[in-house]
Amino acid sequence: MINAKGLTGIIDAIAPFETADGFDNAGLLYESGRKTDRVLFALDMTPGVIDEASALDCGILVGHHPVMLGGITRFRFDDTIAAAVKNGVSLIAAHTNLDKAKGGINDVLAEKLQLLATVSLSGGTARMGFLKTALPAKEFAVYVKERLGAEAVFAVIGDKPGLSVAVCGGAFDLVIPAFLADADAVVVGELKHHQALEAKNLGLTAVAAGHFITEDPGFRVFYKTVQNILGQDARCFYSESGKNPFSVF
């Protein structure tokens, strides 16, 4: 059995909460006071995932994206926070601290793309490494799609073959840091229009593979790491209801 404070301490040892960005709300978000031997992991904390936690009798939900971010002033009876309180499910978020952590979201993303000699970039959040063989820009975009199992990607086609690659899951603004680090290509979850224009102007290949797609692999590794530490004290589950909200037509 374990309680939310105990599990928060375990997560802190893997991905220290003090490393989270200033805007972030990582850590223990709601504590029910209940001990449990079942823990659910999900990239997003949604009411549906809370229902799943309740159905599995999980007393703790560990998510990547915090539900209380940006100054929430009220919540409804049917939103995630209310559902967690009603069902006695404690909430813990491992967000930008896990993005930066060794073996965390962005290390796993770099590994999925088979990057070599990977180093930290942009204050430790992003990663940069090298492909074994340079790929023409269009082939690189297809390579990213296939390696991440994405249904589709958006790509800005740059001037050079992709060899040095900067990566960061989610919506991180990586174009300028990547250019300054002499990267040939960038892989992120989301790419805003002005960022795409910057990449085009700088001759960078930039691939947006999807927020969920770029972060889910790393969070699954994290879930397995926590399970290994907990051993027989608690059983961890990975959400089956928490899915990519986007469909491709």
User: Regarding CATH, which class of the largest domain?
Assistant: Alpha Beta
> What is the SS-derived class?
alpha/beta
Strand order of the largest sheet: 5-6-8-9-10-7
Poorly predicted regions are: none
Shape: elongated
User: What is the subunit arrangement here?
Assistant: single chain
Major β-sheet, in short?
A: 6 strands, mixed
Domain unit count: 2
Residues in helix, %:
25-40%
Full CATH superfamily name of the largest domain: NIF3 (NGG1p interacting factor 3)-like
Q: What is the CA-atom radius of gyration, in angstroms?
A: 19 Å
Order of helices and strands: HEEHEHEHHEEHEEHEHEHE
State the helix count. 9
Q: What's the architecture of the largest domain in CATH terms?
A: 3-Layer(aba) Sandwich
Mean pLDDT: 96
- Find the CATH topology of the largest domain: Udp-n-acetylmuramoylalanyl-d-glutamate--2,6- Diaminopimelate Ligase, Chain: A, domain 1
Strand content: 15-25%
End-to-end separation: 45 Å
E-strand count: 11
Explained architecture:
With 249 residues, the chain is an alpha/beta fold. 36% of the residues lie in helices and 24% in strands. It contains nine helices and eleven strands. The strands form two sheets. The protein has a six-stranded mixed β-sheet, with helices on both faces. It has a five-stranded mixed β-sheet with strand order 1-4-3-2-11, sandwiched between helices.
